[in-house]
Amino acid sequence: MSQRTFKIAIIGAGPAGCMLACLLSESTPPPNTIIDITIFEGSAREYIPLERCSVKLHPRSGLAAIKAGGLYDGYFSRLERSDGSALCVCDKDHKTWFRAKASMEGDHEIDQSKLRNFLYNTFHRDKVRHEEIDGELMIRNVRTQGELVRWRSRLVRVVEEEPEEGKSYGLPMLHFGSGEVIGGWDLVVGADGGWSVTRRYLDPSQEPRYSGISKYVFNIPASSNNLDWASPLVKGGSLFAFGEGKSISAQKLGDGSLNVGAFLRFDSPPLSQSLTKNQILTQFQSWSPVLMRLIQSGQSVPQVYHLHQLPEDFRWNHRPGVTLVGDAAHLMTPTVLLFAGESVNLAFEDAWKLSQAILSGIPVGFETIETVAQSEDVAYLLDYSESEYCYTTITKALLQRYDIGDST
């Protein structure tokens, strides 16, 4: 029997796209099948700029996907931080309402930048060398050609090819900002984030909406003397303070620095891209001096994130050969992201379920992707609404994690 090549285009080299590529590249393909994967990423650099933050991988979702794909043992386990799961929740007067000690029994903490670099290098395991420098594991990609990721490839639209004779649909064709057009894909996976171009092909009417919350992030460098008093507040993990419809957060990163976030409410995104540190501090004048000092101690110019979400009832329309994962499929509310870190966890769970659907679908005689893409597991993969998922599953997960009350 001749070999068949199954061509998959993954749009976006973020957590969802990288995890899907890892899972497929680490899996044994079905007999007489070659799975040809290409990731298209619009960034001009190998390392996409990411928010400096730490990610909590949950045992039943994100971490489960990593372990199920055989990616956990070895170097990944050495990138985790044992103290990162410590948590303190307090009010604006710095009165503690809840505290949890660090434990490797539940969530596993890892810096987002290290997580992404680990995933990217996993596809090229035979071309990667690992070095330990000053006690820290460094992953260096030494592959020089045949890259799985095509950088500077900004997708601008997806169109449907002319159907072949006898078929009612055509396969997806990708148009890039450079003018390049590439077709012939069995499956296109939109892992291109909240402002997904792939999603517009499935439903052009749905765009993220402003949540009413903007996040301003300051960093206290590891070399700063301010860490002497600030670090004990988070005990190696995270602190969240709430009051007056606002919030201040602090999170310890693997490099020893501290990320400080100020969350403010607006009816619409401020016209000015960024408020100054003094303007932000005026919003917290009635707060504890200790919490205000976290903002004062950060570097002068904050990073700004105007947080958006998809409509609660969003469902995308099925079109053959195209599906979505990660934030492209279910851009979640900032409340959920703030408390549970579900964005990356759901992205990994999406990738795991989709990889299994692809691997199990090919051997049973899928001559085209149509049958796979029309199956419920793929066409509506993790197509959650906020009302059905966020306020039940995540709340229960938090209760289970910290043994608060009845989690059933």
TrEMBL record:
InterPro entries: FAD/NAD-bd_sf. Signal peptide: none annotated. Keywords: FAD, Flavoprotein, Monooxygenase, Oxidoreductase. GO terms for molecular function: monooxygenase activity. The keyword Signal does not apply. PANTHER family: FAD DEPENDENT OXIDOREDUCTASE DOMAIN-CONTAINING PROTEIN, MONOOXYGENASE ASQM-RELATED. This is Monooxygenase. The lineage of its organism: Eukaryota, Fungi, Dikarya, Ascomycota, Pezizomycotina.
